[in-house]
Amino acid sequence: MERNEIEISRLAYDLVVCGGGPAGIAAAVAAATTGCKTLLVERYSRLGGMGTNGLVNQFKVPENPPAVKSLFASVKGHENDSEFLDLAYADLVIAHGVTLLLHATVFDVITETIEHRKTVRGVRIATPSGPMDVIADRLVDATGDGIVAFLAGAAFDMGRENDGLMQPTTIMFRVSGVAHERSMEANGGRANYKFPEGSWNHVTMAARERGELPWNIGMVRTYMANRESDRYINATQTNYIDATNGFDLTRAELEGRRQIPVVMDFLRRYAPGYEDAHVARVADTVGVRETRRFRGLVCLTREDCLSGRRWPDAVVTGCRAPLDVHNPAGPGQAEGVSESHPSGKDPRPEPYDIPYRCLVPENTDGLLLAGRCISGDHAAHASYRMQNICMATGAAAGFAAAASIRQGVQPRCLEVSIVQAKLGIESTPGNARLQPGRNAKDTFNENQNNYC
Ligand SMILES: Cc1cc2nc3c(=O)[nH]c(=O)nc-3n(C[C@H](O)[C@H](O)[C@H](O)COP(=O)(O)OP(=O)(O)OC[C@H]3O[C@@H](n4cnc5c(N)ncnc54)[C@H](O)[C@@H]3O)c2cc1C
Where do the domains of the chain lie? Predict the structure, then answer.
């Protein structure tokens, strides 16, 4: 058969969820529970996103909101299982009737201008049989980098507000052969290394100053795996990377992998219990913390997180993750460096909400955002990028997409209380504190959504 005889296949779904990470899985399952015909498209061979392909399986299935907890009940217990977490996710999406398509990369969008607004109507995907068009009533962009929103021309920001620098990338790896008892005993009963009592970061920084670690490694984090003898190591670091640029990503892959033997030598020398440890597995892909943050109907800010801001259109509540900004320009964390914390200390938020409007791109219809690409500033992103929170924004986006199809309204016109009811979040517009945020449009009419 000749190349030009191959017809581009066309598929049609109610909803296409792009990206099979924590956010995309949640979005697809949530929508499917309401009877929405849903396709989940993932470029790699496994579901789980950073949590599996990046070996970042340190998370807890969220307890909150209630609907998200129950959606992910079957995944509980697999959180630290780098071999089978992806299968637990696949079983979950298939059990809910989601059609799963792996090895399928979104490379273009199909758009229409409706009532002077850019509206996403589908995506073009690269599959082993060639390109394929998938048409849908709604799309959820859960690709981490927000490739669908980007290709559709949605407005976005990247990096710190002052210089555009983003958090460094990391190649995670897993070690075996740790003497569990010895390591726990030396470390006050913890697998996450702080030995001895808080001085681990001093040991790390001193080794760095002696040239035993690369210039930009100021923290070596060790996490428990699903076997006592094993740990996941979060330590390698490449700075000044724009992970939306393929050449930068190539440098990040190589530089990070080259650092692994150096970190391993450091652990064997200084971490009791690691003397005979060895590298058992290296992540399939570099870990990317930060890329595009799309401009939504509101922008969640650092102040919103630190003050525990409540929103009338909250679709995620009780977010507690620290503002975990890995230093974009050097070792350790970006904030809180002191004598007692030579690698920095993250600011801790009051439990805060994420409003629905952070999931709605300000200038694009037919599309919802989920996961780490939602609307927020650099510091807020460093908290809501955690997997449990990404799952929660994913579930909200999935329920919202399905409801907006059913009601025949664009996501920006949706009555948010419908989504809140699905999530098990009490709708409290009257009680919410209405504070101005970064966006000029940051007011919320309780009876009528102003953005339709
Ligand atoms: C080194 C590191 C350590 C971290 N530590 C923690 C931690 O301890 N705890 C925690 O909770 N979080 C942690 N995180 C953060 C967390 O892993 C991510 O922020 C989270 O996974 C983001 O979820 P997501 O679903 O938005 O995106 P992702 O997990 O990135 O998933 C996006 C999915 O979309 C797919 N995709 C991308 N482009 C396309 C395309 N064009 N076509 C089709 N599919 C596509 C990707 O392959 C991927 O599967 C860490 C991150 C890193 C990098």
Answer: 9-160+290-452, 173-282
The most distant pair of C-alpha atoms in the chain lies apart, rounded to whole Å, by 69
- What's the gap in Å between 142 CA and the centre of ligand 1? 9
Residue type, 69: K
What's the 44 CA to ligand 1 centre distance in angstroms? Answer: 12
Length of the chain as a residue count: 452
Distance 49 CA to ligand 1 centre (A): 5
Question: Residue 57: what residue type?
Answer: N
Contact predicate 349/306, CB 8 Å: yes
**Number of neighbours of residue 413 by Cβ within 10 angstroms:** 16
The CA-to-CA distance between both ends of the chain, in Å, stands at 49
Give the residues across from 13 on adjacent strands. 136
Q: How far apart are CA 39 and CA 25, in angstroms?
A: 11
pLDDT score of 225 more than 70: yes
pLDDT digits (tens, 9 = 90+) for 111-140: 999 989 999 999 999 999 999 999 999 999
Give the pLDDT of residue 449.
Answer: 44
pLDDT at 305 over 70: yes
Q: Give percent above pLDDT 70 in the chain.
A: 92
Q: What is the spatial distance between Cα 52 and Cα 142, in angstroms, rounded to a whole number?
A: 15
Mean pLDDT of 351-380: 98
**pLDDT at residue 444, rounded to an integer:** 45
CB atoms within 10 A of CB 298: 25
**Which residues approach ligand 1 with their CB closer than 6 A?**
18-24, 41-44, 49-51, 54, 56, 58-59, 105-106, 142-145, 147, 170, 172, 234, 287-289, 371-372, 385-388, 390
Rounded to the nearest angstrom, the distance between the alpha carbon of 146 and the centre of ligand 1 is: 11
How far does CA 372 lie from the centroid of its chain? Answer: 4
Two structure tokens written together for 86: 């992806």
Q: What percentage of the chain exceeds 90 in pLDDT? A: 83
| Both structure tokens of 70 | 């129950």
CA distance 450 to 413: 8
Candidates 3.50.50.60, 3.40.50.300, 1.20.200.10, 3.40.50.720; CATH matching 9-160+290-452: 3.50.50.60
Does residue 395 contact residue 387 with C-beta atoms inside 8 Å?
no
Question: Cα(296)–Cα(396) distance, rounded to whole angstroms?
Answer: 15
Decide the pairing of beta strands 99-101 and 38-41.
Answer: parallel
Q: Is the peptide bond preceding residue 65 cis, with omega within 30 degrees of 0?
A: yes
